[in-house]
Design goal:
The complex is a heterodimer. By secondary structure, chain A is mainly alpha-helical. The longest helix of chain A is centred in the first third of the chain and has 36 residues. Helices cover 49% and strands 12% of the residues of chain B. In chain B, helix 3 packs across helix 10 and helix 10 runs antiparallel to helix 11. Classes of the chains: A mainly alpha, B alpha/beta.
């Protein structure tokens, strides 16, 4: 019963949504709208659930002193600090339990939550993302080799697109006369992106779409049950 | 050990240092490389430029701080263009961090347009979870999806929202996206299901997956791809900002990576490693 009940709900709701796409009249149209509203409410709760789960997972790791457990303390402390100051003084648009925190705003220049978000979180996030450039440079030096025909083609097109998608491409081939513009590196990069890349992407997207339809049907019909947990 | 063998075993910290110098120097000393305007960027510009006077536009901030250096310049440039044309700007977010990204973008534009008034010229509706379903719900009933703005003011008390019942009341939508939910979902629902023109900006890595939507059906009216797209837009509106500045750094970084790939491959063939692999 514990597993069958969710399966029945999934089947009924899934079928209702599919039918409402083909018959948008009452009662299906209204039911579909109601289900959408429920989805939005449940999505909100899912965020709360995710936060509680994050806290639980990290606390368990600290308690068990797993490898690098000290880093999990940083995560939990940051989480608690942000939530606490958010509740106490609110965010940019909303007041907190202690009001707008005018004294703190005059000291920091903005609310504590917004100050930490702007001056710590934003910079740390951007730094993490920027580190990719360093690792990509190192990896390209060691691993991007013309080992066979396929990798050679990939290598050549990657170099052309990289040059064409920056100002270097224009700088290198901008002097080529107008009637030979097809030799301009940005034009070659556009050709690769517009025809070769787009064709491959479309094929991938169509396959992925078919895959989504297939797996959705498997879930609705109760064939795929891994989302219920267990084996 | 030959020169190339040594080169092949170069410490990666040297590569990191070269990339650091390659990125930092152009940010300090402008190199002013020429920038060609590409078709997808020009189309976004035309969409914004050619809309009717007093047009209502929806800007969706679907990204976070990690991709802010790449996407925020686009958002700022489009906001400047919209306020220049006197459009009514409604902002929303499918990502929680998008709310603050929107606030910061408007904050930076306000210096140039001090007369814009909250609730009259622009509004920040805030974040709503649900992705694709949220967009679909906005297509049916905007007020039910966003009963209040980000500051908890009821939508009924915000003048700019008086004429907005659902997505079809917008002249066009511009989505700034760094993943899912994002621009792809806006195309699939707002354009394909409700027929609202959609354009957008995304990170450079997302461009290949979005480019199939740049087609004859104009599923995506135009696309600002990565920092280059943002820089091109800044050039089109004649308001160079951080994107134009950052393009020099990005170009040098790409050039360095190409040089690394070339040296790596020369070393690979000169040292005869390609033969070892084939044996």
């Amino acid at each position: 019963m514990k597993r069958q009940f969710p399966l029945v709900i999934t089947f009924v709701v899934g079928m209702l949504v599919i039918v409402s796409q083909f018959i948008p009249h009452q009662p299906f149209g209204h039911l579909s709208d109601t289900l959408e509203s429920w989805f939005l409410i449940i999505s909100g709760f899912a965020i709360l659930l995710g936060q509680l789960n994050l806290l639980k997972v990290n606390i368990i790791k600290i308690h068990r002193k797993v490898r690098n457990w000290q880093y999990y303390i940083v995560c939990v402390v940051s989480f608690v600090v942000m939530i606490t100051i958010g509740i106490l003084w609110g965010t940019q648009d909303q007041p907190g339990l202690l009001g707008q925190g005018s004294a703190l705003v005059s000291f920091f220049g903005r609310k504590p939550f917004d100050y930490i978000f702007k001056h710590f979180f934003e910079n740390l996030s951007a730094t993490m993302f920027s580190l990719l450039a360093f690792f990509m440079a190192s990896a390209s030096y060691r691993a991007f080799r013309a080992r066979n025909l396929e990798s050679s083609l990939l290598l050549i097109s990657a170099v052309l697109v990289m040059l064409g998608r920056t100002t270097i491409g224009t700088w290198l081939t901008g002097w080529i006369p107008e009637d030979l513009t097809y030799l301009h590196i940005p034009q070659i990069a556009n050709f690769i992106m517009k025809y070769l890349q787009k064709t491959g992407q479309r094929a991938i997207m169509i396959c992925a779409g078919l895959g989504i339809v297939g797996s959705s049907l498997r879930i609705i019909l109760g064939i795929e049950r891994s989302y219920l947990g267990g084996k | 050990m030959s020169f190339f063998e040594k080169l092949m075993k170069i410490d990666r910290r040297i590569i990191f240092l070269l990339i650091f110098i390659g990125v930092a120097v152009p940010l300090i000393v402008a190199l002013n490389f020429t920038l060609e305007i590409t078709q997808p960027v020009r189309k976004v510009y035309s969409l914004v430029e050619d809309a009717d006077d007093g047009a209502y536009i929806l800007l969706s901030f679907d990204y976070g701080p990690s991709t802010k250096p790449e996407i925020q310049p686009m958002a700022i440039a489009v906001l400047k263009h919209a306020f220049e044309r006197d459009y009514k700007v409604v902002c929303s977010a499918l990502w929680p961090m998008g709310v603050l990204m929107c606030s910061e973008a408007i904050e930076s534009v306000k210096e140039e347009y001090p007369n814009i008034e909250y609730g009259v010229d622009y509004v920040n509706l805030g974040y709503k979870a649900g992705g694709l379903v949220t967009i679909n719900h906005m297509g049916k009933n905007m007020r039910e999806t966003f009963p209040t703005d980000a500051a908890n003011n009821p939508i009924s008390e915000i003048p700019i929202m008086d004429n907005i019942k659902n997505l079809t009341n917008f002249d066009f939508i511009v989505g700034f996206s760094s993943g899912s939910p994002g621009l792809k979902q806006w195309v699939q629902v707002a354009h394909d299901a409700y027929g609202v023109p959609v354009a957008g900006g995304s990170t450079a890595v997302q461009v290949p997956s979005l480019s199939p939507y740049l087609n004859r059906e104009n599923q995506l009216e135009g696309l600002l791809g990565g920092l280059k797209g943002a820089a091109e837009y800044e050039k089109l509106i004649a308001s160079p900002g951080t994107a134009v500045k950052g393009m020099d750094a990005q170009s040098i970084a790409h050039l360095l990576i190409i040089i690394f790939i070339t040296i790596g491959n020369i070393g690979y063939f000169v040292t005869g490693k390609y033969k070892q692999k084939r044996l």
